[in-house]
Amino acid sequence: MDATNFIFDGKSLSDFGFIICEFNGETNTSTPSNITFTTLKVPDNDRRRFLSSNYEEVISFEISIAKYESKKNILPINSYEDRAIRKWLCREDGFHELVIEQEDFYNIYYNAQINIIPQMVCGRIRGYRLTITTDNVYGYTEPLETEFNINSTSPYNFLALSDKADYFYPIWEITPVQNGDLHLKILEDINQTNTILKSVKANNKITIDSENGIIEGISPDNFNWQLPRIIQGYDETVNTITSTLPCHIKIIYRLARKAVC
């Protein structure tokens, strides 16, 4: 890992006067997410038939941090600084966003929890060994936005570039240009019917949070609760988005990233 700083829960390691480092030749390590296949032995055949797959572990990795003055001077940590670091990193309220900042490498965001072990030298705390455990088998990009205008004769082709071959569920901000019933459809999603928004008003923005099942700007009685989603295959996947009414749409989303920092 070629990095010296990270941001956790909105606060930067450098704001505390610390950097990512290595103690006494140790290395910063990561645990890959291994895939396990479930297979079935085919009678009278040496081959096995694939049934399903799953990840056995989430991403986890270890790094060290120290209070830094220069390459030759790692400073001791006093009790006030020790309390501040523990309060920031040792959280009991769930996962929080973590991003490792690296030059010449795009940032990957994780939902993570952190455990720390003090690194003692001559009876003084000189740094910490951090074990970082995420909530998933991949990270994410920063929030991305795509905006476009569509109508009944002019769909929009959205190119999905996630590393995870699956559906993903953006936030949709839909602003109709005229009154009426709006039917939204991703043509490639053959397993889901139209998203129907009844009696929409021109210039009245409707927000659909597809991941969390939250809507704003329209009565629940005027929504058929078909949450629009994007399809991602193993190759680049085009999603053709159509609408029966002219409207302006903004999609807010994060793409899965399987690279490990």
TrEMBL record:
Domain Phage tail-like C-terminal residue range list: 138-253
InterPro entries, per the entry: DUF6558_N, Phage_tail-like_C
Pfam families, sorted: DUF6558, DUF6558_C
Origin: domain of life: Bacteria
DUF6558 domain: residues covered: 1-136
Protein name: Phage tail protein
Species: Eubacterium plexicaudatum ASF492
